[in-house]
Amino acid sequence: MPSDLVTKCAKILAAKEWNIAFAESVTAGRMSAEFSMTNESGKILRGGITCYEIFVKEQILNVPHSIIEKYTPESAEVTQRLAEETSKIFNSNITVAITGLAKAGGSETKEKPVGTIFFCIITPVKKINHRKVFKGSAEKIVLQAIDEAAKLVIDCVASL
Questions:
Q1: What pLDDT sits at residue 30?
Q2: pTM for this predicted structure
Q3: What CATH number is given to the structural domain containing 28?
Q4: Phi, psi of 123 (to 5 degrees)
Q5: Which residues contact 124 (CB under 8 A, 6 or more apart)?
Q6: Residues of the chain with pLDDT under 70
Q7: Which of 19, 43, 98, 100 is the most exposed place for a label (fewest CB within 10 A)?
Q8: Range of the domain at 123
């Protein structure tokens, strides 16, 4: 069952007659799945790409290897490129890209601990880059990140 924030976000998008698409690394398709369970899914959900592995980021979503090498796969720079490319593929009103570290074994550092999530949201009028650190198990981090993305979309769309 989708969270209250995901449900609210879907209702707001449906009221505006806007659609949404996702590029999901850390959430690995869970965000698309959560939005697909809302009553408005048929009106708003364009689709998504799970780009968990670097190969998909580079070969499908055209993120240059040099950017991944310089900034790591879990970074604001890579997340922005994912959003830009996904927006083109899906021709969506709202595009959400998300990367990050839900568990150990990625590019975590002292400055970028496990729980660090990067968001890039493209709307018809602006681009939002956001970073937040969450605590908990991998699943809790992913669910908190999905709610944060929904909140960011709600805040942005409400101001338009």
A1: 98
A2: 0.96
A3: 3.90.950.20
A4: -120, 175
A5: 93, 160
A6: none
A7: 43
A8: 4-158
Q: Rounded to an integer, what distance in angstroms lies between the CA atom of residue 34 and that of residue 128?
A: 21
Place of tokens 């070969």: 59
How far apart CA 109 and CA 122 sit, in angstroms, is 28
Q: Sheet containing 127-133: give its strands across.
A: 45-50, 20-24, 94-100, 116-122, 127-133
Query: For residues 31 and 144, what is the distance between their CA atoms, to the nearest angstrom?
Result: 11
- Total domains in the chain come to 1
- Give the pairing of strands 94-100 and 116-122: antiparallel
> Which amino acid, one-letter code, is at 117?
I
The Cβ of residue 102 has, within 10 Å, a number of other Cβ atoms equal to 26
Strands 116-122 and 127-133, how do they pair? antiparallel
Those residues whose C-beta lies under 8 Å from the C-beta of residue 66, and which sit 6 or more positions away, are: none
